[in-house]
Sequence to fold (423 residues):
Amino acid sequence: MARSGTGWTGKTKMSTMSAKHAILGVTGSIAAYKACEIASLLVKQGVKVTPVLTKSAAEFVGAASLEAITGSRVIKEMFDSSTNANIDHVSVPLSADILIVAPATANILGKAAHGIADDWLSTALLVTRAPILFAPAMNTNMYEHPAVQENLRTLHERGCHFVGPDSGVLACKTVGIGRMMEPPYIVEAAMALLYPKHDLAGTKVLLTTGGNHEPIDPVRFIGNRSSGKMGHAIAQEALNRGAEVTVITGPAEVQPPEGATFVRVQTALEMGDALLERFDAADIVIAAAAVADYRVDDPATEKHKRNGGSMTLRLVENPDLIAEAALRKRQGQVVVGFAAETSDVERNARAKLAKKNLDLVVANVVGTADSDFGTDTVRASIIDATGARDELALMSKATLAERLFDHIVAMLDKKRGSPIASP
Fold:
């Protein structure tokens, strides 16, 4: 599948690939009109598309348009008189290779998270065993509401896939996160799930993710806002490509995906010990954790009490975990670091690349509405030891993970002198 820095280019898949079946669920968002473009791009890729409109979505987009594009009947009702009402809502989801919900409103995300099945689409989400891809679209306040965020975490942990949302001007004329990703990006994510790569079969990936909690006393700590979303996306992509994945995770909102072996730690020193213990056995090591730079020198053994005055903490520097580990890098091993920066992003990233003996560094912006701890999108570049730079701009963290492994696979091929086995 051809790609550019701005997303999927729409070139047709090779005819040697077997045709796939996608259910395209459209829910009641103003972004529903973009479903026609999503359907069209999928059809151009040779994908059979079964469109589904919820009752609210039918207020925004007509069934006739989707039927003309896909050549398939649009499903609108649970008990459509033109079908076998007893099995249609079961047989169709079971025949699908992917179920895409675009746009995905807060309502459908809530139904999916809580197992509510009160229409055809929500029922299909429970029936299908195919990958599920959500493209969220909603008002910023809705997206950031704790209930919606909890539903997103639940669906992430169950292995659902997400693309977006993006930030920008919304239909309500406000500016913020919640805008559905553009159709080419959604189709790019769908095609990656429909035609997964297996170029990491037999390869061991070691990943650090999450943050650290450095204790002040038994109940308080120094930490950061790392959500673990980037690490989750990297681990999921490695699993999708057939790798054996071990995740060393500090405290995080999002847990490692099903299929990964994971080791839970709290402090930077614990993370460093776990990393060094497993470093030599790994073919690929990716340090995506937001490691605490400092720890409290002498944490109290009992809870600090208020004393009516100030409290002084003496902080000491933690070891540079990936720099220490990379000193042991063996021939053929690939070591990747992350440089999360608020300013001078590329310059700081290049300095880390050289100083820490890395093969690749991901230079990513933090501190903005669409690229920060906890967001689903990121602004990043991938830089290698030769100085070559792949400008990726704004994209989902899942897409960044895919592009990162594209670079890693090419680098492994070169280091080993022969290509990794592919499908």
Notes: The first strand starts at residue 3 and ends at 4. The mean pLDDT is 84.
